Amino acid sequence: MDVRALESQLRSEGFSHTFVWQDGPHAFYPEHTHAGLTAHIILDGEMTLTMQGQSQTYRAGDRCDVPAGAVHSAQMGPRGCRYLVGEK
Prior knowledge:
The chain is mainly beta and 88 residues long. Helices cover 11% and strands 59% of the residues. It has one helix and six strands. Strands 1, 2, 3, 4, 5 and 6 form a six-stranded antiparallel β-sheet that branches. The radius of gyration is 12 Å and the shape is globular.
């Protein structure tokens, strides 16, 4: 996956800060919020995001956006997850 092209795409959508993050196998983030809209583009591995009582698993090439203030949690897969984050 071309991370530079994905970063450029996010910046063109108004995401002022982008970075690549990596979590180990089965890492878990309990319910939390972000002040602004965040985009997550999965580069390797998988992430299951739970928001409003609904869980969805995202894998390499998938994108999930989390609205500002949305309460959500995230569980990484058995191989962990590496993803590009965009923040507005």
